[in-house]
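Researcher: We plan to redesign the surface later, but first we want a full-length starting point. Tokens attached.
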């Protein structure tokens, strides 16, 4: 157990929820700021493929081509025939129907044992919502 784990272990549920919420908001803010900084750095060096600063070196990878108006392209039959493609749909990917497995599990016996040995429940997701001040005052 690390010092941080021990510190968190001693906290109340309310304090842990507060930390989880504030850190998630801070992570989103930092991610947005990082994206803006990267964009600004690239914009300062238009056409460059390399950036070299006092402490950093970087490579600017070319972005993908994006068709913004295809009317002129569609007007040329040769371009249309050679360059316009309709992707083939991917074949469906099979998966296990857990509702059906749950129904079969209810039958018990060997099939329930096989199902139990073949799957595990994933980690749940905690959804936090701050209480309104009036509710908080009543519960406190």
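Model: Full-length starting sequence:
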């Amino acid at each position: 157990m690390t010092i941080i784990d021990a510190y968190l272990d001693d906290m109340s549920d309310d304090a842990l929820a507060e930390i989880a919420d504030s850190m998630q908001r801070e992570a989103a803010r930092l991610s947005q700021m990082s994206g803006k900084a990267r964009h600004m750095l690239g914009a300062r060096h238009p056409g460059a493929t390399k950036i070299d600063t006092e402490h950093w070196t970087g490579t600017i990878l070319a972005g993908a081509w994006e068709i913004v108006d295809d009317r002129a392209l569609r007007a040329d039959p040769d371009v249309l025939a050679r360059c316009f493609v309709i992707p083939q749909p991917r074949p469906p990917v099979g998966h296990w129907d857990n509702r059906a497995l749950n129904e079969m599990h209810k039958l018990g016996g060997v099939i329930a044992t096989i199902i139990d040995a073949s799957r595990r429940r994933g980690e749940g997701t905690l959804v936090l919502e701050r209480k309104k001040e009036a509710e908080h005052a009543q519960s406190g």
